[in-house]
Amino acid sequence: MRVVIADDHEVVRIGLRTILEHCGEDYEVVGQAAGGVKLLEVLAHTACDLVILDFLMPDEQQGAVALDGVTLLHEIRRRHPRLPIVVLTALRNSAIFRSLYQEGADAVVEKAHVVHELLLALRTVRGGRTYVSRHLGEQLAGEHATRTQADGAKAGPQLSRREMEVIRMFAQGRSITEIATLTHRSVKTVSRQKRSAMEKLGLSSDGQLFEYARTHGLAG
Question: Is the pTM for the entire model greater than 0.70?
Answer without folding.
Answer: no
